[in-house]
Amino acid sequence: MTGILAILGPGVLGRSAAQWAAECGLEVRLLGRDKAHAGRGRQEILKRWGEGIAQGRLTAHAFEAASLEGVDYLLEALPEHAEAKATALASAGRWGSPDLTILSGTSSLPISALAQHSGLTGRLLGFHLFVPVPRMAVVEMAVAPDTGTRWVTRARALGQALGKRIIQVRDQPGFAASRMALAQGLEAMRLLEAGVASAEDLDALMTLGYGHPVGPLELSDRVGLDLRLLIAEGLSAAGEARFQPPESLRTLVAEGSTGRKARRGFHTWDLRGRRT
């Protein structure tokens, strides 16, 4: 695949996606709220590449922080806030060319609603990459019923260029992956609240009993308990009672114990992001 990929948002997802896209041979541009913001994300990626090059794992790659000029694909990788995403996507639609393929990296927000609020109905797709992007071999592509075939084809081409298995799902709140992971995580929280077993033991049942790489409570810590709560509240508010957030989740988020990034959640974490 030829073309230039711009990634809007130099956070964890944006940096991870930009790094992998460049390693796959794509020309990548990283966009932030200003040049300094994008530049900090770029420097973090270059630091990781420098370590990989020194260890013989990577070779140098082309990468720059720039504008939408000449860009073929734009991946929005902002935090899970519908209004901020819609505003940024609307700007991309105005500034980009009519041929710009616009993708949202959301893991849970309905694409049809984002498209409506950003003036991109029939054009916007969900392109949910999993972090760390270099290690996760799948992309969840959410397609609204009125999305043009042209844009679906182009999004598939990008997924293939990134070496990902493309799972196309129907557009709905939480798509498929987040709903499945959230349901398991919430049930583990309820079991913990009921005193059925400790957090460590509940996770061990899933890792040692079912072969999962991490347990549902550890995964919730890794994803971020604030994000888990946001998605659960959205789904339960839409009438899906099974996603009602447990009190333990609300309490931890209110205390600022949002998981690995805060070094405490259902587990405790060290400065290097490892469970202690």
Q: How would you describe this protein?
A:
The protein is α/β, with parallel strands linked by helices and 276 residues long. It folds into two domains: 4-170, Rossmann fold; 177-262, N-(1-d-carboxylethyl)-l-norvaline Dehydrogenase, domain 2 (Orthogonal Bundle), CATH 1.10.1040.10. 45% of the residues lie in helices and 13% in strands. It is built from ten helices and seven strands. A seven-stranded mixed β-sheet has the order 2-1-3-4-5-6-7, with helices on both faces. The model is unreliable at 57-65 (pLDDT under 50).
What attributes characterize this protein structure?
276 residues, alpha/beta, Rossmann fold, N-(1-d-carboxylethyl)-l-norvaline Dehydrogenase, domain 2, 2 domains, seven-stranded mixed sheet, 10 helices
Q: Strands of the biggest beta sheet: in what spatial order?
A: 2-1-3-4-5-6-7
CATH class of the largest domain: Alpha Beta
* SS summary, helix count: 10
Main sheet characteristics: 7 strands, mixed
The fraction of residues assigned to DSSP E strands is 5-15%
Short description:
The chain is α/β, with parallel strands linked by helices. The chain is 45% helix and 13% strand.
Question: Which helices and strands, and how do they pair?
Answer:
Blueprint: E1 4-8, H1 12-23, E2 27-31, H2 35-54, E3 73-76, H3 82-95, E4 101-104, H4 111-118, E5 125-129, E6 138-143, H5 149-161, E7 165-170, H6 177-193, H7 199-210, H8 216-223, H9 225-237, H10 247-254
Parallel strand pairs: 1-2, 1-3, 3-4, 4-5, 6-7
Antiparallel strand pairs: 5-6
Helix pairs in contact: 1-2, 3-4, 6-8, 9-10
